[in-house]
Design goal:
The protein contains four helices and seven strands. The chain has helices at 13-26, 43-55, 108-114, 126-141, and strands spanning 3-10, 37-40, 64-66, 77-80, 96-99, 117-123, 145-150. β5, α3 (108-114) and β6 form a beta-alpha-beta unit.
């Protein structure tokens, strides 16, 4: 079973995604392979996220690309709008999936098998909160280990 973390009540999901990605990526112990992160969301959000990842920190660089890019197999942070993109097969490791969208994956079982850790980012927006609750119930019904991190208290 996958570990699924819900980060709820997020005020700005793209800035939050940058901070979260930096934290996950930089937490790789010295000498260990870099953890691969796949970020799924709506195309318009991913375009803005792409810009933010380039400019997020003045002294940092979060190496990333879109899944269709030739370098996706060698890039630790990959952006895609499709949970079932055939190009995901070219990503050698799939350690963490960060979901920024509202759509429920069609095949949750396959997704949870592919990614040992899934992070759902849920904003304060009512529609996104409702969609997040539905995803939470679906994951729970499949027996996954669920954790909630309420960002309104952060």
């Amino acid at each position: 079973m996958a570990r699924i973390d819900f980060h709820s009540n997020v005020s700005n999901k793209l800035e939050y995604a940058c901070r979260l990605t930096r934290k996950i990526w930089s937490a790789t112990p010295t000498g260990q392979p870099v953890r691969n992160i796949v970020m799924v969301g709506e195309k318009v959000d991913l375009m803005r996220l792409d810009e933010l990842l380039w400019t997020f920190g003045a002294s940092e660089f979060l190496p990333h690309c879109f899944i269709e890019d030739d370098a996706a197999a060698e890039t630790p942070i990959v952006l895609t709008h499709d949970f079932s993109s055939p190009a995901l097969a070219n990503v050698p490791n799939a350690d963490v999936l960060i979901h920024l969208g509202m759509r429920m994956p069609k095949d949750v079982a396959a997704l949870a098998t592919r990614f040992p850790r899934i992070v759902e980012v849920v904003t304060v927006n009512d529609a996104e909160r409702l969609a997040g609750r539905e995803r939470y119930k679906a994951y729970r019904d499949l027996g996954h280990e669920l954790h909630n991190f309420d960002q309104s208290k952060a």
